[in-house]
Amino acid sequence: MRLKGNRFIIIGRAGMDLYPDPPGTRTEEATRFVACLGGSSANIAVAIKRLGGSADLVTCVSDDAIGRFALNELDRYGIGRAHVRAVGGESRNSLAIVESRIENHQSVIYRNGAADFEMTEADVEAVDYSRYDALITTGTVFAAEPSRAAAFRGFELARAAGLPLIFDIDYRPYSWPSAQVAAEVYSRAGALCDVIVGNDVEFGFMAGEYARGLDKARDLVAQAAQLAVYKMGEKGAITITPEGEITTGIYPTKALKPTGAGDSFMGGLVVGLSAGKPVRDAVLQGSANAAMVVARVGCAPAMPTTRELEDFLGRHVDPSAA
Q1: How far apart are CA 197 and CA 57, in angstroms?
Q2: Separation between Cα atoms, residue 66 and residue 86, nearest integer Å
Q3: 8 A C-beta contact, residue 30 and residue 21
Q4: In terms of residue numbers, what domain contains 204?
Q5: Cβ contacts of residue 123 below 8 Å, gap of 6+?
Q6: Which of 21, 103, 151, 221 has the most CB atoms at less than 10 Å from its CB?
Q7: Residue 140's CATH number
Q8: How far is Cα 196 from Cα 270, in angstroms, rounded to an integer?
Q9: What residue spans of 193-245 are helical by DSSP H?
Q10: Residue 88: inside a domain
């Protein structure tokens, strides 16, 4: 699986993350917080940008101080936001309070009346897909209308322009009306994509049974996909391609928090594929990116630069197969 370049258009949310400070503080005991850019799609965009790629976002933010914070942060990281639209009314921006601790970790996410769900087909139709090399989306965009129809319309337009479709399953139960609807929509989206990335729980959810998650990943590749990465946490990952399967381990790290690993993995993976790396090396680059991010405060600000990633890979041996 190769990508022809590193210019990415990403559909999905940008928000605000608040971290109790100093690291290790419980939210209910906090007296101060550090504010960072949040939202899985925005985090992936930062990961790509830090590794030398370019990323533009398609989403909606609330027309208020929190939405403007997200816009300012996108500018600060160099993420294109020509297709990020502010919406008024009662819509509110995604907001998360996330602890920098592993033991009894707490994340509280506010998604009621989420502004990003207001994205419409007109928003994705305004994009010139010929300017990009791939489209990435996270599963949250499919959880409600009109965002769901808009995302599928974006798939159509990107496919017509010859772009590969990259799907981070990113299942968040609280965003969906029911588990059944989520499984049906995710399976429909996955069947359209060239690259599908998720963990064992997410693939199991798509399959309707946890034990059948790996079979689901294999089926997606057998049907049309070029690559499926079945992540298993500390047990590493199984990467499925039409040519066969690759099993990889994880890089050891002293984790500060459990969050951010998926977004950083995706960024490292797709930048590796765009650089022409073999699939195994691209997966390991994603794994290294994830190992670095969970050891740092925040998600977006924790994303490694190319130099930091290369230094990490130079100091760590290829992890043994899971």
Answers
A1: 19
A2: 11
A3: yes
A4: 7-13+44-60+119-315
A5: 58, 60, 83, 85, 150
A6: 151
A7: 3.40.1190.20
A8: 11
A9: 200-207, 213-223
A10: no
pLDDT at position 175? 87
Rounded-to-integer distance, Cα 112 and Cα 272, Å: 36
107 has a pLDDT exceeding 90 = yes
pLDDT above 60 for 322: no
Cβ atoms of 119 and 59 closer than 8 Å: yes
Q: Which amino acid, one-letter code, is at 122? A: A
| Alpha-carbon distances, residue 322 vs 93, 193, 235, 319 (angstroms) | 39, 26, 5, 8
User: Taking the alpha carbons of 154, 306, 47, 81 in that order, is the dihedral positive or negative?
Assistant: negative
Q: pLDDT at residue 321 above 50?
A: no
* pLDDT tens digits for range 30-52: 999 999 999 999 999 999 999 99
Considering the domain boundaries, does residue 74 fall inside one?
no
Q: Whole-angstrom Cα distance, residue 151 to residue 173? A: 19
Q: In what order do the strands lie in the sheet with 107-110?
A: 33-38, 15-20, 95-98, 107-110
**Quick check: pTM over 0.70?**
yes
Cα–Cα distance, 282 to 53 (Å, whole number) = 14
Q: Per-residue pLDDT tens for 136-151? A: 999 999 999 999 999 9
